[in-house]
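Technical annex, item 7. During the second reporting period the consortium partners agreed on a shared format for inverse folding records so that results from different sites could be compared directly. Each record opens with the tokenized structure and is followed by the designed sequence. A conforming record, contributed by the partner at site C, is shown below for reference.
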């Protein structure tokens, strides 16, 4: 653990990034966001999804802002900007082929970026060659997608007639199109078991990616996984270690989704100990713990998929807290 932490400091310095996008209501005694609408998620499919994956069953879509009937994506983005939004995630439910139906909305992205000045991140799902080209032509700032390393998980959890190598192919297509790639790995996705996570990291490590985001299965009420225990802190920490070891010079963040309570606190401390670069919605005391390790916290009201921005000179507004 100490060696990984020290290597992380050698490569990235002593800064650690904490993120609080407007995906949900959140605050701690250490940090209360000032503009909860700075970065917001949009669903282009409302609350509809053709897959109804066992871990989600469209519950995640309920927290997104839907494009209204008779309204296009530019009009929605304009309305959000007037309310203080500076960046958006374009997402939604999946088609039966595993991709999010983004293509007809992407033609409006150049206007959203040029006329409104918003950052635009897209959640693609499985990527076809034509979708990769459309995302590149639209000029999205980054593309997020889950990477699954076990065929059983693809078919039994996502209900897709695909295999893990199709997700590897999606990475190749995004890479070939020159897009900024933000892959996610859901730890414990196979009904709380560790199954394809290590293979997913291996696939990611073979591609040019900007930030890897690790999240942890969070059992949701009303889904087939509602009563399934999430993976243990030890099992999750081993994934943290594998990611940090295999991608020492790549930013690795602990993302939004992870169980609450004592497990969240232990996971956040483990992420700091192992040398991850950032944490979304930090647990109570996590910022103080980072300082106790000699790290200098930076706080952003943005999605942790935006961690690339500082490196390319697109400085995000940092929130100051006492």
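Designed sequence (site C submission):
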């Amino acid at each position: 653990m100490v060696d990984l932490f020290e290597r992380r400091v050698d490569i990235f310095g002593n800064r650690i990034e904490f993120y609080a996008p407007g995906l949900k209501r959140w605050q701690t005694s250490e940090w209360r966001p000032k503009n909860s609408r700075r970065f917001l998620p949009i669903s282009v499919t409302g609350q509809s999804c053709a897959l109804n994956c066992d871990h989600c069953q469209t519950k995640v879509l309920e927290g997104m802002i839907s494009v209204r009937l008779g309204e296009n994506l530019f009009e929605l983005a304009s309305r959000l900007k007037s309310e203080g939004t500076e960046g958006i995630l374009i997402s939604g439910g999946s088609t039966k082929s595993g991709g999010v139906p983004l293509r007809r909305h992407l033609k409006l992205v150049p206007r959203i970026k040029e006329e409104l000045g918003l950052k635009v991140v897209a959640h693609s799902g499985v990527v076809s060659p034509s979708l990769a080209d459309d995302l590149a032509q639209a000029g999205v700032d980054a593309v997020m997608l889950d990477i699954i390393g076990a065929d059983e998980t693809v078919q039994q959890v996502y209900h897709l007639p695909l295999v893990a190598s199709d997700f590897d192919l999606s990475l190749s297509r995004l890479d070939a199109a020159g897009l900024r790639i933000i892959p996610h790995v859901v730890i414990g996705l196979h009904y709380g078991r560790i199954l394809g996570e290590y293979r997913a990291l291996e696939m990611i490590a073979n591609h040019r990616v900007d930030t890897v985001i690790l999240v942890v299965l969070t059992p949701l009420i009303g889904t087939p996984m509602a009563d399934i225990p999430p993976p243990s802190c030890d099992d999750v920490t081993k994934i943290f270690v594998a990611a940090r070891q295999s991608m020492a010079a790549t930013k690795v963040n602990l993302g939004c989704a992870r169980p609450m309570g004592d497990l969240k606190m232990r996971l956040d401390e483990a992420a700091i100990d192992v040398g991850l670069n950032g944490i979304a919605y930090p647990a109570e005391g996590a910022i103080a713990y980072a300082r106790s390790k000699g790290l200098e916290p930076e706080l952003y009201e943005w999605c942790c998929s935006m961690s690339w921005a500082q490196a390319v000179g697109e400085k995000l507004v940092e929130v100051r807290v006492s």
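The mean pLDDT is 91. The radius of gyration is 18 Å. All partners now use this format for quarterly exchanges.
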